[in-house]
Amino acid sequence: MKRIKEIYEQYKNYSLDLIMYGFFLLFILFLFIFFA
To answer: Where are its TM segments located (predicted)?
Structure first.
């Protein structure tokens, strides 16, 4: 059970990083289109 919890924590952190990275890319893309 402890092992599953560790994997879940790692997955949660990874997905959070992925979401933040996605928003960052969208923001840069928006700025690029806006100033083009």
So the answer is: 18-35
- Gap between the Cα atoms of 34 and 15, Å rounded: 28
One pLDDT digit (tens) per residue for the chain, 36 residues: 789 999 999 988 899 999 999 999 999 999 999 998
The structure's pTM equals: 0.56
Give the single-character DSSP code of 33: H
Both structure tokens of 25: 């890319």
Element (H, E) at 15: helix 2-35
